[in-house]
Design brief:
By secondary structure, the protein is α/β, with parallel strands linked by helices. It is built from 8 helices and 7 strands, in the order αααββαβαβαβαβαβ.
């Protein structure tokens, strides 16, 4: 039992965050009580703003304040090179490397029969729409797809499914190299590893 119901409520909410346990939530809550009031309010305002102003790009599925997003609008990006990832966090990780100058497509997850995630629940139909010669976003014909799903069982299954789906379209399909350790997530990989994985990608057979 905490001395304040508001403190208890804050800790309960913090515990719901990923990777935050009871002790970590308590430390964070007490920290927010100790910092200057304006610092705590600035954090609260940042949370409110991101929930109200950030949505999803209708083209690639990445987080964005506008539609289409800045990456999809960028004329310096190569529209013929499309990198397929599972989550928006993967786009952030790859962008930090500075090694990729194409565009992205976010699936919104990976195939997982055990968790009940089927192809219909992912943005695969939207991906196929973008691969048409007259794509809705008006881009040039895609000549290569880089499958950058996570190097784990679900990610590999998704990459295999997509490669077989895209193969009849005559588009080159590559997979990021094994510089990314098996079983890990792109979001937590270091920049050098991700850069080498992109550079060493291979064609999917």
């Amino acid at each position: 039992m905490y001395s304040s119901k508001y403190l208890e409520l804050l800790i309960e909410e913090l515990v719901r965050l990923p990777s935050v346990g009871q002790k970590s939530a308590q430390r964070l809550a007490l920290h927010l009580l100790r910092v200057p009031r304006e610092d705590a309010l600035r954090l609260a305002e940042a949370i409110r703003a991101v929930r109200e102003r950030v949505g999803f790009c209708g083209t690639c599925g990445n987080f964005s304040e506008g539609d289409p997003c800045a990456i999809c609008r960028d004329p310096q990006r190569d529209p013929g090179l499309l990198c397929v990832v599972e989550q928006p966090g993967d786009v952030l990780a790859l962008e930090r490397t500075g090694a990729f100058r194409g565009r992205y497509h976010v699936l919104g997850g990976a195939l997982s029969p055990l968790e009940g995630t089927s192809p219909e629940q992912l943005r695969i139909r939207e991906l196929l729409e973008r691969l048409r010669p007259s794509a809705p976003d008006g881009t040039a014909e895609v000549r290569e797809i880089i499958l950058a799903t996570n190097p784990n069982v679900n990610g590999e299954a998704t990459a295999l499914y997509l490669s077989r789906l895209v193969a009849p379209l005559g588009i080159k399909v590559t997979r990021i190299a094994r510089g990314v350790p098996m079983g890990s997530d792109l979001e937590y990989s270091d920049l050098v590893t991700l850069s080498r994985a992109l550079e060493g990608r291979h064609e999917v057979e």
